[in-house]
Write a structure and sequence with these properties.
68 residues, 21% strand, elongated
């Protein structure tokens, strides 16, 4: 590895501070619990354009009629 790569790696490891990806995802879900985390158009009811999952209610879809 080059010194440049090792320098970048050291910076990243310093910022991460031993946290895992799951720690980061959990923190994001908590911080933005009421925001849309994921939206798609799969199997949405008639007249609805999106279904959305928030961080506050993982596993609970809510339909929205916001167009795109």
């Amino acid at each position: 590895m080059t010194d440049d790569v090792l320098t970048h790696r050291a910076r990243i490891e310093e910022q991460v501070g031993g946290r895992t990806l799951i720690d980061a995802l959990a923190g994001t879900a908590t911080a933005y619990a009421d925001e849309a985390a994921y939206s798609d158009k799969h199997d949405v009811p008639e007249g609805e354009t999106w279904r959305t999952l928030t961080g506050a209610r993982p596993g609970s879809w809510r339909s929205t009629s916001r167009g795109r």
